[in-house]
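Worked example

This section walks through a single chain of length 490. The input is the sequence exactly as stored; nothing has been trimmed or padded.
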Amino acid sequence: MKVLLIGMDGCHQEVFQRGWTPHITMLHETRKQMDIQNDLLSRGWLEISLGEHATVTSALYDKPKSNRSLDWKTEFSILDVSDAENVKPLWTRLNEAGYSVGIMNVPTSFPAPHVNGFFVSGGGGGAPVTEDATRELIYPPEILHVLHEHGYIVDNRLYELVVDKQLETPAKIFERLQHKNERRTNTFVALNKKYDVDFGFIVFKTASVLAETFLTTEYVRRKNMLNTGDESLINAIRDYYQNFDAQVKKLTDLYPDAEIIFVSDHGTTQRTHTVNPNILLQQNGFQKVTHGKSIVKGAISKFKEIVPFWLKAYLKKSSLSKVKDVGQINFNTETSRAFCKTQGDWTHGIYINDQARFGGPVAQAEIENIKEQIVTLINSDPTAQQHGIKAIPTAKVDGAVLTYFPDIQVCVPNGYLTSDKGKSFVSEFVAPLSKSSLASIMKGDILSIKSHSPIASISTKMAAKFTADELSGDLTVVYDRVIDMMSLKS
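Given that input, the structure is written out below as tokens.
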């Protein structure tokens, strides 16, 4: 194996500074972190896998359906790539160059493509969230018995662990996730013994992101002096990372000649502030609040705070999309000229409420002028300047598909969550009362959020072969450098 990517969802450099990962920490002493910034609009794993930003692929964390309504979607699979004919996944590029590949658990890579080597799709993104691998998730078909033999677990989500498996303590949850990681590592090794690939890519997704979500939530909880610290959680995550460190050591010991690249799709950080761009739009006449819709939106938000976790899990898995969309907006869709619709803990932009995409009042000829006005409004706002918030108009580039991409990017610092539930344009976040981190997460409190600082590190020896510009940018840089490294290692 010439190059091995080890992916860890939601990972950041501080993870390896806690004293829980001695082997990985030792490796990082002789490594260089690339200068990577994720805008948290474009999906990081797809940037790494496809080598293109969401302006080209439409691989956004959330996006409009663009059907003359405000219907939205957060699901995405590789089949949804807008320019699929011209976008070549990393495994395709490497196969065409004569290299064999072994891909395991890369998110949004369902269904498994035909490759020279082996491929095991990750769960989610249109793939079934299931424990047992199925034919759609793998290639070639004959590897299915290897996965079953090693007890490979495709995916476990939190609602499944808590509701279905009734693992109601952090210790039990992270014991299960350790078990899953061990099986993933052993299965990858077994498949590589059979196929002896040139390039490997293994991702530890749910386990990694849950570890950081729980830990960061605990740190934020402790900022409220009325909350009691949960030491059992800290111990459970420490044990998890010690076990994960052993999995990485196993891989690096087995493939000592491979160039190891550690990657993540984004970092994780503590929530410090809330940013609601809609407030600024409302104050300056770009958006009109509808009183009745505002009451419904507020009531739905309160209801979600008290609804049991099992019911949330049911709604999450159900097809009741119309029910789930109730109370998503509080503005007049016929008169408002711009809006920011938010879901999840990523960054969100502003859309012009045009006729073609949303059935709104803005004609095509007016879009650029309104964009310019809103960008000027935000960038000249004293509160925005105080908090380092900037607006950037999305510019059309060759090959770009901007139907789904926000017209204006709202750039916020790490720790700032864009949320259309905020009562003011920018407000400081105060940790709520909660019994535990698990209770906070199950309730739906967002204390832990994605950060713009993913892991993307290579050996200093390999880094010396590239210029600073070649090691800077978004996560598509990883795609480009892998192509180069494979050639250099040949």
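What to look for: The first helix runs from residue 22 to 28.
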